[in-house]
Specification:
Elements: H1 58-64, H2 69-75
Helix pairs in contact: 1-2
Length: about 80
């Protein structure tokens, strides 16, 4: 598991405005400051195919990776 920070005002702390995420990688996002707002978007290349898209099932992920159960449940709300 890897955590990356995106956006201002954390650029000085190693954050970035964008990330390249390899195919086959599960991703999730949340705000570090819950009093603020954010805009999230994705661009895929060479193209997006619905046949290749899968939404995570938190129950299955919790069974397969019990050490991350709290994280999966937090992101599935």
């Amino acid at each position: 598991m890897e955590t990356r920070i995106v956006g201002d005002p954390l650029l000085e702390e190693g954050a970035s405005y964008h990330l390249a995420i390899p195919a086959g990688t599960w991703i999730a996002a949340e705000l570090t400051d819950k009093t603020q707002y954010g805009l999230y978007s994705e661009t895929v290349t060479p193209g997006f195919e619905y046949e290749d898209f899968e939404v995570a099932d938190p129950k299955i992920l919790c069974q397969q990776f019990p050490e991350y159960k709290e994280l999966f449940l937090r992101f599935s709300k």
